[in-house]
Design goal:
Helix content: under 10%
Distance between the termini: 50 Å
Shape: elongated
Structural class: mainly beta
Number of helices: 3
Radius of gyration: 20 Å
Strand content: 25-35%
Largest sheet: 6 strands, mixed
Length: about 270
């Protein structure tokens, strides 16, 4: 399992530039291969420690696309050997599940691995529980049918390419504790029409909204313009050139700051009414 995960991550480095990002190392990814795996209603769970389990793969050779080809409801907890285990983690159990249509996540979920739902091209909607504080790199990469996402209330960071290629996503409201939106986070979201960026955001990295050429309006609640780009030697624009004339709503009295800030100065239609 560990060898398979590492191989998969190495392979992804040739698919997308990862900007020297560091992947998290949850306990499950370091577990002994003999760790106990439990099956419930076609979904597999691996005991992490204590009373915690993670949704995981049954082995390294199964056909996920066939196994997970429906809407799945993950329970908050499961019973095994007369003990209750709480479902807190999701590894790469659903990566590439092209027929997975929907999933209801446990309320106590705290960790979703990078690429956990990458290439789930039939997934249409997902509500992320409030205990999740970080959406890691490529978590929803190329989920082409994804139309609606509820982000966690206490989210602090959106990782590289987290929603890249989610071409049917129509709007996104960034929660009030997010500080950084990483590179290419929403790149290629062609149907994205409306963006709301809270005052907590201090930086939006290169190409975060690249290719989002159909944005019709944007609300930015920070009085000081968030830093745009700046995480690579050759900085790339954060926004597509085709949206420079859209209405950008900003706080009252902040227009001068925005019109003189790098890249923000390229927008031509500021409305200071927030």
């Amino acid at each position: 399992m560990l060898h398979h995960s590492i191989s998969f991550l190495l392979l992804s480095a040739f698919i997308l530039p990862l900007n020297a990002q560091t992947f998290p190392q949850p306990e499950l990814w370091l577990r002994d291969t003999a760790a106990q795996t439990i099956e419930r209603h076609g979904v597999y769970y691996t005991i992490i420690n204590g009373q915690r389990v993670a949704v995981s793969k049954p082995d390294t050779n199964y056909n996920k696309s066939c196994l997970y080809s429906r809407t799945i409801h993950l329970p908050d907890s499961i019973m095994a050997t007369d003990s209750i285990y709480y479902v807190t983690d999701i590894t790469d159990a659903f990566t590439g599940c092209k027929h997975l249509r929907g999933i209801i996540l446990p309320k106590g979920l705290t960790f979703i691995a990078p690429m956990a739902f990458a290439w789930c091209r039939s997934l249409q909607q997902i509500d992320l529980p409030d205990k999740i504080e970080n959406i890691y790199s490529m978590t929803f990469l190329y989920c082409r049918s994804l139309k609606q996402v509820k982000l966690p209330s206490f989210l602090t960071k959106i990782g590289d390419s987290a929603f890249r290629g989610c071409s049917r996503l129509k709007s996104i409201v960034i929660p009030p504790f997010v500080t950084i939106i990483e590179s290419s986070a929403f790149e290629g979201c062609l149907h994205l029409k409306r963006i709301e960026i809270p005052q907590s955001v201090v930086a939006i990295r290169d190409f975060a909204f690249g290719g989002c050429e159909n944005i019709k309006e944007m609300y930015v609640y920070a009085s000081n313009p968030p830093i745009l780009g700046g995480d690579t030697t050759i900085s790339l624009p954060v926004f597509d050139d085709k949206v420079r004339n859209i209405p950008v709503h900003i706080p009252k009295g902040s227009k001068l700051l925005y019109t003189h800030a790098p890249e923000w100065s390229l927008f031509t239609n500021y409305i200071d009414d927030l």
